[in-house]
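TICKET: design request
STATUS: open
ATTACHED STRUCTURE:
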């Protein structure tokens, strides 16, 4: 349905974004902050479609389809976001997302967020556990890749040690000075990706 108005509203903050469907009926609302959203699709002469409770995670893409039926403008169809597919249907990326709610009561050694990485499928201790820097927490292997073949991003910003390609978060670095001290309680969500989209690039691990 081309020319339909799509409104995306964050139920917690009230953030509102609007767009229109393209000629083939598709639409895209990029760079949404993490949170829960209501998606409203409307067009004159058709019933309004509302999909509520759509959860957007970090580094994730959610697909919300709507079928508009002829009817009165005052009529609307409401669908719960929980009915959306739980599997990733928009790309072939593998991995998992961890939230504060899911790890709050786990006994994490040193309350170090990097220990959470091992809770994702495909992750194992790297055979080249690099600990030659004071304060370094070592590396991990994703799907058999080298421990130094991973790319670390914090809020989308590069967080890699340019000397050894170790994470520059919570580790000593070349001069034993951490670039960022990040306790586990400061992490809202963490996603580990493999077989990822070209937008990340840089390294072939995770």
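STATUS: resolved
RESOLUTION: sequence designed for all positions
ATTACHED SEQUENCE:
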């Amino acid at each position: 349905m081309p020319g339909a108005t799509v409104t995306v509203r964050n139920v917690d903050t009230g953030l509102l974004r609007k767009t229109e469907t393209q000629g083939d009926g598709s639409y895209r609302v990029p760079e949404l902050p993490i949170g829960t959203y209501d998606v409203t699709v409307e067009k004159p002469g058709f019933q309004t479609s509302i999909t509520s409770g759509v959860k957007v995670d970090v580094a994730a893409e959610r697909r919300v389809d709507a079928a508009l039926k002829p009817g009165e403008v005052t009529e609307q169809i409401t669908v719960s976001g929980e009915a959306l597919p739980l599997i990733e249907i928009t790309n072939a990326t593998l991995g998992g997302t961890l939230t504060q709610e899911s790890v709050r009561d786990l006994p994490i050694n040193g309350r170090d967020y990097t220990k959470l990485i091992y809770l994702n499928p495909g992750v194992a201790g790297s055979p080249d556990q690099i600990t030659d820097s004071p304060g370094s927490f070592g590396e991990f292997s994703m799907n058999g890749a080298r421990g130094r073949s991973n790319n670390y991003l914090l809020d989308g910003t590069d967080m890699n040690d340019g000397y050894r390609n170790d994470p520059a978060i919570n580790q000593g670095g070349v001069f034993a000075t951490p670039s960022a001290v990040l306790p586990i309680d400061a992490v809202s969500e963490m996603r580990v990706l493999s077989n990822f989209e070209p937008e990340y690039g840089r390294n072939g691990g995770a």
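CLOSING REMARK: The domain at 94-194 is CATH 2.170.130 (Ferric Hydroxamate Uptake Protein; Chain A, domain 1). Residues 150 and 205 are 5 Å apart (CA to CA).
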